[in-house]
């Protein structure tokens, strides 16, 4: 793991473990009785929320907009792309469509 301060722990449809840290994610694969972790430090701002859609794409709500990690590529969405604010607290997806992000003004840099 990147560090021992895991903010959120998910299990996706392929049974990968995804640990969200302040500035990155760790992806774990269960091998026998242990977990092999891959760590990714991401320069995407503070990660406030992360979900994985049914295609295995990672959607990150950060204090610097929204990021999508898909098939080895990163996509960044900002106010210029139509987001109401840069600081996103929570993200929801239904049928691969973003429905709502909220609490835009309450994020604080730490």
Give a description of the structure.
The protein has 110 residues and is mainly beta. The chain has no helices and ten strands. Mean pLDDT is 78; it is low at 102-110.
Biggest sheet: strands side by side, in what order?
Answer: 1-2-3-4
**What is the number of beta strands?**
10
Question: How would the global form be characterised?
Answer: globular
Total helical segments: 0
First and last CA, distance = 21 Å
Which parts are unreliable, with pLDDT below 50 for 5 consecutive residues or more?
102-110
Major beta sheet summary = 4 strands, antiparallel
Question: Keywords, please?
Answer:
single chain; 110 residues; mainly beta; four-stranded antiparallel sheet; globular; disordered C terminus
Report a brief summary of the structure.
With about 110 residues, the protein is mostly beta strands. It has no helices and 10 strands.
Element layout with pairings:
Elements: E1 8-11, E2 17-21, E3 24-31, E4 34-41, E5 47-52, E6 58-62, E7 65-70, E8 73-77, E9 90-94, E10 97-102
Antiparallel strand pairs: 1-2, 2-3, 3-4, 5-6, 6-7, 7-8, 9-10
